[in-house]
Amino acid sequence: MLQLYALCLGALGARCNSEVLWLRWEHVDLEEGFVWIGQERRAGQGRERHRTKSGKGRWVPMTARLRDGMKAHFAAYRFGGSSWIFHHEGPGAPTSPASGSGGSGAPS
Fold first, then answer.
1. Residue 77: enclosing H or E segment and its boundaries?
2. Are 92 and 81 in contact (CB under 8 A)?
3. Sign of the torsion formed by the C-alpha atoms of 11, 12, 18 and 23
4. Is this structure's pTM higher than 0.70?
5. Are 95 and 82 in contact, with CB atoms under 8 Å apart?
6. What is the DSSP string of 26-70?
7. Would you say the C-alpha torsion 33, 69, 79, 35 has a positive or negative sign?
8. How far is Cα 2 from Cα 4, in angstroms, rounded to an integer?
9. Tell me: the pLDDT tens digits for 11-38?
10. Where are the domains of the chain?
11. Which residues contact 10 (CB under 8 A, 6 or more apart)?
């Protein structure tokens, strides 16, 4: 998982805490080869939950290497119960992205 994380940082040109750690499977289009880097909204509220630095979302093309890595990661983890690509548990991790609790700001 760490190798894919580093690959996302380099291949997508994305920021670590504010963009890559917030990626969900719904943001990845494996067929077309694009990843959505953008804003998240809380369900039922008009306020933004997560913002990129620019405040704008964007579709970013995947390299062949990243696409292969995402496909392998998808096969191994997609149906493990988390909608997040890079999920973690432990002290400081929020109990859910919508809860806003926890210290790291990264999704669980």
1. helix 64-77
2. no
3. negative
4. no
5. no
6. GGEETTTTEEEE--EE-TT-SSEEE--SSS--EEEEPPHHHHHHH
7. negative
8. 5
9. 998 888 778 888 888 999 999 999 998 7
10. 2-77
11. none
Residue count of the chain, please give it: 108
Instruction: List C-alpha distances in Å: 12 to 33, 34, 58, 64, 89.
Output: 12, 10, 11, 12, 25
- Nearest-5° Cα angle at 17, 74 to 28: 30
CB 56 within 8 A of CB 38: yes
φ, ψ dihedrals at 49, nearest 5°: -90, -40
Reading the block at residue 88, the tokens are: 């973690």
Placement of tokens 């890595």 in the chain = 69
